[in-house]
Amino acid sequence: MNTAYPFVPALREPEGSPIRELFKYLSDPQMISFAGGYPSAALFDAPGIGAASAQVLAQRPAECLQYGATEGAPALRRALTALMAERGATVAPEELLVTTGSQQGFDFLVKALVEPGSLVLVEEPTYSATLQALRLAGAALRGIPADHEGIDVEALEAVLEAAAAAGERPRLLYVVPTFANPTGATLSLPRRLRLLELVARHQVVLVEDDPYGALSFDGAPPPSLLSLCAQVPAARPWVVHLASLSKTLAPGLRLGWLAGPAEIVRRAVIAKQVSDLCTPPWLQLTAAQYLDDGRLPAQVAREVAAYRDKRDRLADALRQAFGARIRFALPAGGMFLWAAVDGIEDAAALLPHAIAEKVLFVPGAGFYAERRPRAAFRLSFAGADPAQIGEGVARLARAVAQAAPPHMR
Amino acid sequence: MNTAYPFVPALREPEGSPIRELFKYLSDPQMISFAGGYPSAALFDAPGIGAASAQVLAQRPAECLQYGATEGAPALRRALTALMAERGATVAPEELLVTTGSQQGFDFLVKALVEPGSLVLVEEPTYSATLQALRLAGAALRGIPADHEGIDVEALEAVLEAAAAAGERPRLLYVVPTFANPTGATLSLPRRLRLLELVARHQVVLVEDDPYGALSFDGAPPPSLLSLCAQVPAARPWVVHLASLSKTLAPGLRLGWLAGPAEIVRRAVIAKQVSDLCTPPWLQLTAAQYLDDGRLPAQVAREVAAYRDKRDRLADALRQAFGARIRFALPAGGMFLWAAVDGIEDAAALLPHAIAEKVLFVPGAGFYAERRPRAAFRLSFAGADPAQIGEGVARLARAVAQAAPPHMR
Fold first, then answer.
1. Sign of CA dihedral B360, B363, B368, B370
2. Aminotransferase class I/classII large domain spans which residues (chains A, B) (predicted)?
């Protein structure tokens, strides 16, 4: 398949996103999708964003349209620092980098810290694009199991000790501790503190990917790992926090940030210099204006109310359709529900039946470092039309009835 | 300097931009800068861009603010394909990727094709961020000399043959053939054709970085290497063309594109999936609207007139101040003039004197793969205030008078 460029080694043969491969089915207007991790476009505050953008362009046209500082526009850096402080984390200017979406922050960490063959630890299951980025960089991936309370810190400790005994040092440890992708799970507070102790003791860079924390359905979300470094100060030089406005303001603005130790931020800034130089300043100033105007909390409240309702509709429909045959933990925030149904050993084999029934989900296999069939699958409720959730689940139940072995139908 | 993260190997100790290190001096309001490669903010069409952005947001809010296709928004892909056709190159949809600035396109090529130790060829001198990106990736850099007619194709052929004899295959060959950064030089037509024959014969991916081609002061620019593949069809699978709206529309939009063989574009798309997922759709649709409205040619004409005038002012002032002691070739377009003055063996040693006189330029050393003192330096005329060019050159002459050996003052 790669005959034209035979000099490219197998290592670099890249792997496409398992989720994006499903997008071709979205052109079918009959399709009901629980697949993509898209926020609901119906909730976007286009008028508010448009007004902020027109205001900053009129006031500061040259700053909007010229190259900007690689670290980010000062106005947005100030606004994000204030947002982090509200969320309990004090971040100095040299500890913050604005990125073109939070995924870019992870890409820069990989570029700065990972080489072919580097050992990298990820909780399992985990965000598929993280696995994709690490595989593209040639990392040696090792999965650490996670359950409904997040990463298994005992299993992690065993792996860290075995690695240390073997003279290996993981370059990164990646977790989504709050309303995780794909599981919706949230790392418990005792595990958060234990995780920080472990990375401090083993001197491993811990990446806390936190795009969903603001979407908390039951009051404030748990404190971030970054903010908990106040209790475990030895962990602070090892924690890098990735955050985003994609799930709260709008993903199309491609605005995220990286907060972490100055030495790591310095390396990420240089990776950004050679990548996109700077995140579009106009969009940065637009977001800063929106944040400074105090509009984000009301927007997030609208999203939380809508997503909580959709989660409840989805959970109710799943229980009604599958009864005791389905297993899932109710997510306390975010966009995803992770489920498995008795009789389905490989969710990837269920998918063609679902597509035939005109419903989409993401099979679990794409979220694991080790590739083998997985029973579980991811359902995204955030982007779904609430009126269609019940019908989508009914289609899923028909697909399961076709795919399950006869005695399980 | 890196005690906190001792596990990071020396290979990955990144190098900052030699140009960005000068930016701290720009806060001095007395400073006259010929340093940064910034277009003139005074020429930005902020009203036109603002109107296009408001229009697309009103018409297609969800498309503007939601995640978009990694390959780029269909409307912009169509507009850019049309622009390429006007410039003589036919590009199929699967041969085009929208990037967040053209530099990101090069970053993806590096990610897809270069590993630590990979041999990469660059014309010398060349764009400093290209060297930075390649060094960050651990490439083995080899410079090929260039003169006022661009890369020396005889020298290139000798290097390619020696590499082939040694069983080495360069992963990339990077050139800026039209109004080059830093030299302003333009590759002659005979050399263009010879270059294409060489990459076809040696099966080396040729990166044609072309951000400046539209800024041609004397009629149409020479045909791009990509368009010349019509005459050397065997070269087509080996040519990747990088282009940008940064130097014509506005750099702050961060809109560039990569046009090349589908197999390479496919790899770049995957690199983009794990980096920024997509370029901000709102800005893409804004640019597409602007292009579809036919506004770009008039904007480029304004820029060409202004930059030609500034080039002439700079060249006249240099000749007047230095007479026969200065050597430079008049650039036929773009933003840069590359000069050397008798008596200055190391332009980096001249720089502190220039800063004391309150004028900035970029010393030549940062544009070479091999690091050693260089006599030449880069003067950017595009961003300069035309009324200050003469005074800037007078300051430069005073700095030279201080830095040159006594008999040369």
1. negative
2. 58-396
CATH of domain B10-45+298-408: 3.90.1150.10
For the segment(s) A46-292, the CATH number from 3.40.50.2300, 3.40.640.10, 1.10.150.120, 1.10.230.10 is: 3.40.640.10
- Cβ distance of A66 and B16 shorter than 8 Å: no
Report percent pLDDT > 90 for chain A. Answer: 90
Contacts with A, B 135-154, CB within 8 Å: 136, 138
Cβ distance B280 to A54 less than 8 Å, yes or no, reads no
CA closest to A247 among chain B residues: B66
- Asked if B70 has any chain A CB less than 8 Å from its own CB, the reply is yes
Chain B residues within 8 A of A64 when measuring between CB atoms: 46, 252
The amino acid sitting at B28 is D
Question: Would an 8 Å CB–CB cutoff place A276 in contact with chain B?
Answer: yes
How far, CA to CA in Å, does A152 sit from each of A149, A242, A339, B52? 8, 21, 19, 51
Q: What does the alpha-carbon distance between residue A304 and residue B86 come to, in Å, rounded to a whole number?
A: 49
Q: Locate CATH 3.40.640.10 in chain A.
A: 46-292
Sign of the CA dihedral with A83 first, then A89, A90, and A94 last: negative
Mean pLDDT of chain A: 94
Phi, psi of B368 (to 5 degrees): -120, 145
Query: Predicted confidence band at A7 (pLDDT cuts at 50, 70, 90)?
Result: low
pLDDT mean across residues, chain B? 94
Q: Where in chain B is the domain with CATH 3.90.1150.10?
A: 10-45+298-408
Over residues A4-27, mean pLDDT? 71
Under 8 Å CB pairs connecting chains A and B tally to 219
Using CB atoms, which residue from B103, B273, B280 is nearest to A275?
A: B103
Best mutation target among B19, B23, B55, B67 (most A Cβ atoms within 10 Å) is B67
Rounded to a whole number, what is the distance in Å from the CA of A402 to chain B's nearest CA?
Answer: 33
Q: Where in chain A is the domain with CATH 3.90.1150.10?
A: 10-44+298-408
- Global ipTM: 0.96
B282 inside 8 A of chain A by CB: yes
Specify the pLDDT at position A1.
Answer: 37
Averaged over B259-285, what is the pLDDT? 95
Determine the average pLDDT of the residues in B98-125.
96
CATH 3.90.1150.10 correct for A10-44+298-408: yes
> Cα separation of A317 and A375, whole Å?
20
